[in-house]
Amino acid sequence: MTPITEVDGRRLALSNLEKVLHPATGFTKGELLHYYATTAEVLLPHLRDRPLSFLRYPDGPDGQVFFAKNVPPGTPEWVTTAEVPRSEGPARMVLVQDLASLVWAANLVTEFHTPQWLIDDPGEADRLVFDLDPGAPATVVECCEVALWLRERLAADGIEAYAKTSGSKGLHLLAALRPTPSGRTTEYAKELAMEAEKALPRLVVHRMTRSLRPRKVFVDWSQNAARKTTATPYTLRARAEPTVSAPVTWAEIEECRSARGLTFLAPDIAPRLRDHGDLLAPLLDPRHAGPLP
């Protein structure tokens, strides 16, 4: 029998709670739901008012993994949805605005991916993002070196950067912006990626060509495009272990000496929140948003 639970007055059917989703640690769907419910206070502000793209892995990372952007079949009527403009025509997408919607979406077993703009102003970016992706044998250690360079370069333009792990191999750098057309934000990000390659030629590549990436860090500037999304802070990732896209301090980046040193699993997040709070909270505060130069 499928358990029925009530979350903030909404009745939810939660299925397959004993299913192992992350086989390296035996992490179950029930544990996944508990993680999202207990992390909701910091996760929800980063999801709110941003149309959600689901990367679903209902049978774990070794099963079928697929992206879904449109409202899934069977979505409860109380889940907020909105029409989102797209080049191929408007689509209706989910907005996770509250705890009940978060638990419902988590029950689908999904990574949460969101754009750099809010639903009230589509295509006007309020965040800048760089995805630092290492090409083997480079690791997050090399990403940290690049992140420190980008942090200083952004600071020179009056932009304060914050960091999180991707939850996979690399790092994400983010900054709060006053609303700026996504096209302009993308241009600026590409300019800085090219500068990084010029300054660190043995370490950085800004082009997407995969043959150029081994031993280097790809500074992916393209996720600033209006149509692109990035893994949301605190989302679990479809990996063998329940890795999290976890905010990190600059001290942790400066001190990183091994890939494992910046790997955080679901059970690590509650202690980190007790120690640090939400390290990305400034992204939610308009006072931290600045203009592009």
Automatic annotation (TrEMBL):
<dbReference type="GO" id="GO:0003910">
    <property type="term" value="F:DNA ligase (ATP) activity"/>
</dbReference>
<dbReference type="InterPro" id="IPR014145">
    <property type="entry name" value="LigD_pol_dom"/>
</dbReference>
<feature type="domain" description="DNA ligase D polymerase">
    <location>
        <begin position="28"/>
        <end position="279"/>
    </location>
</feature>
<dbReference type="InterPro" id="IPR052171">
    <property type="entry name" value="NHEJ_LigD"/>
</dbReference>
<dbReference type="InterPro" id="IPR033649">
    <property type="entry name" value="MtLigD_Pol-like"/>
</dbReference>
<dbReference type="Pfam" id="PF21686">
    <property type="entry name" value="LigD_Prim-Pol"/>
</dbReference>
<protein>
    <submittedName>
        <fullName>Non-homologous end-joining DNA ligase</fullName>
        <ecNumber>6.5.1.1</ecNumber>
    </submittedName>
</protein>
<keyword id="KW-0436">Ligase</keyword>
